[in-house]
Write a structure and sequence with these properties.
Helix content is 25%, strand content 19%. With 554 residues, it is α/β, with parallel strands linked by helices. Among the domains are: 62 residues, no CATH class; 115 residues. It has a 17-stranded parallel beta sheet. A three-stranded antiparallel beta sheet has the order 1-3-2. The protein has a two-stranded antiparallel ribbon with strand order 11-12. Strand 19, helix 13 and strand 20 form a beta-alpha-beta unit. Helix 1 runs parallel beside helix 3 and helix 6 crosses helix 7. It is globular and about 65 Å long. 39% of the residues are buried.
């Protein structure tokens, strides 16, 4: 207690400092010698620098080497950037910061490192997903400043938030810039460069990329997300060590054929680009683990097929290391190709017709590790039969877009497997009855439910005891609905409710004021009289327990 009191006093009431020291001390044995030793180190650090920096520096040097690398890499993202778990994991694996350990694959080890950084208060959770895993996280500004200064000292890397490469050290190993706007190519080479991150670049010039590619033979990570670039130079084929290419939401229209030379490539993210077809040689990249490729056909997302998957390349079955395949178009050959992809964990398929269902769903049922699945029909009138979908895996996320064949709720995916589902999103299913009432008995462990563009009965009822673990519910574009009843005991732990574009909903959902666990409530684009009814019933007073509340007229 005496040592603990001294440590807290040294923190001078600063929350980040106290939290960091608390995390550090939780890893120490409860012995006076061990605690005194840490306190002595803290005092020594404080003689060299200001209090907060001293404490953060002590926390940093307490970490093992691989964890330090993961931490420093997070400073490459812009200030206050929301970092997704999946992206961080793939980037850390590509960088070689983690590898197989105790029988776990590198991605699992990387997730363990992420949780360790959060436990040590080096990163902060932003959002969690349906499995209570970290979905996104952030780095505190002061923590990032520390990481950037250490990264510079140790020649790990540097970051520019002002969109320039001014005074960039030619020996830099990792460099990131945000909102790059200079069309001029660098006049010097960067022979040691391993990572280039250029997020939200305003410039569409390929001069900078060509220049860097020609002088950076060891480039491992290329992340250009949200940039204005519209062309990938053919010189990318010379980067034999490239393991990660991120072009998400860029204007790139095609990939050069020479990409097949990148034999070490692990991640190719071309989501929401203009790319219609993959290069023929993509199937030669045998180490590919994550292929994320679909494009918007309708950016307003109002059409049924607002996103379209790429055509499955010939030789897809040879990519046996694939863990992620999003999104691929269905075909008569796809089922046979998928049978050999035994490591798939996340799979999105669109353009499915009724004729594909039997063979395709049989192939999906035998995937041992499949945890996330999206199935989208070729159009809103095509009936999909799910009788042959009998997953042997613990499938927890299921997204279905399209009309259901009669009796779908009696199929194994709901009768036998429904208890495993945590996330369920249904669009255009046209059940014709109350989807909440008929779904509730089959999916007792759901934490997230999303219903979109569905015809149903006019009165939706959430019965007592329904959806006992649901945290998020979204009801969107359900024009038939004019009444919603929430009975006592329904949604006992609900935190987020989004009711949007229910243009027939004129009156306040009955019982909504009894949802005391609500943290966010959106009531948007409802009947023209809804807002007036809300005000007349003085609902803002009754819903004061909801921190984030939005009520907007149609």
């Amino acid at each position: 207690m005496e040592v603990a009191t001294s440590i807290v006093r040294r923190c001078q009431g600063l929350p980040l400092a106290i939290a960091s020291m608390g995390s550090l001390m939780s890893l120490r044995k409860e012995m006076e010698h061990a605690w005194n030793q840490t306190y002595s180190q803290l005092k020594d650090e404080m003689l060299k620098r200001d209090n907060v920096r001293a404490i953060l520096n002590l926390s940093y040097h307490d970490m093992p080497g691989d964890l330090r690398n993961c931490f420093l890499f997070c400073s490459m993202f812009p200030e206050d950037h929301s970092m997704s778990r999946e992206s961080l994991v793939r980037l850390w694996v590509a960088e070689g910061f983690v590898g197989k350990k105790d029988g776990n694959n590198p991605e699992d080890v990387a997730e363990g490192n992420l949780m360790e950084l959060i436990h040590r208060n080096m990163l902060v959770i932003d959002e969690i997903d349906e499995l209570k895993r970290v979905s996104t996280c952030k780095m505190h500004d002061i923590m990032r400043d520390l990481a950037l200064s250490v990264a510079k000292e140790e020649m790990f890397g540097s970051a520019s938030d002002n969109g320039t490469m001014m005074n960039m050290d030619t020996e830099v190993r990792r460099f990131s810039t945000c909102r790059w706007k200079d069309d001029r190519a660098p006049t010097v080479a960067f022979p040691f460069l391993r990572t280039l991150m250029s997020l939200e670049a305003v410039s569409s010039s390929t001069n900078m990329l060509n220049s860097i590619f020609s002088g950076s033979n060891y480039l491992t990570v290329l992340e250009l997300q949200d940039s204005a670039i519209n062309e990938v130079p053919a010189s990318i084929g010379n980067l034999f060590n490239l393991r990660y290419i991120g072009l998400r939401r860029t204007k790139v229209q095609k990939l050069p054929e020479c990409i097949e030379k990148l034999s070490n490539l692990q991640t190719l993210d071309i989501k929401q680009t203009k790319i219609v077809k993959l290069p023929r040689g993509i199937a030669r990249i045998k180490k590919l683990r994550h292929l994320i490729a679909d494009r918007y056909a309708d950016e307003r997302q109002s059409d049924f097929r607002y996103f379209i998957g790429v055509e499955a390349p010939k030789g897809l079955s040879g990519l046996e290391e694939l863990q992620t395949l999003e999104t691929v178009g269905a075909s008569t050959e796809l089922a046979e190709q998928l049978e050999k992809l035994t490591k798939l964990q996340s799979l999105w398929i669109d353009n499915i017709s009724a004729a594909h269902c039997t063979k395709l769903f049989n192939a999906l049922s035998n995937m041992q590790f499949l945890s996330s699945l999206l199935l989208s029909a070729c159009d809103e009138k095509e009936e999909l039969c799910f009788q042959n979908l009998k997953p042997i895996s613990k499938l927890h996320r299921l997204i279905i877009r399209g009309k259901w064949a009669t009796g779908t709720l009696k199929c194994p995916i709901f009768q036998d497997h429904g208890k495993n589902l945590r996330y369920l999103a249904l669009s255009w299913c046209q059940l014709g009855e109350d989807p909440l009432e008929v779904l509730a008995p089959h999916v007792p462990n759901l934490t997230s439910l999303r219903l979109n563009n569905m015809n149903s009965v006019k009165n939706l009822i959430l019965c007592a005891g329904s959806f006992p673990k649901l945290k998020t519910i979204v009801l969107n574009h359900m024009p038939d609905v004019n009444q919603l009843e929430i009975m006592d005991g329904a949604l006992p732990v609900i935190e987020r409710m989004y009711i949007m574009s229910l243009t027939g909903l004129e009156r306040i959902p009955q019982g909504i004021e009894n949802l005391h666990s609500l943290k966010k409530l959106w009531l948007l684009d409802l009947h023209k009289n809804f807002k007036a009814h809300w005000i007349n019933k003085e609902m803002h007073q009754k819903m004061q327990h909801v921190p984030h509340l939005r009520v907007l007229e149609a």
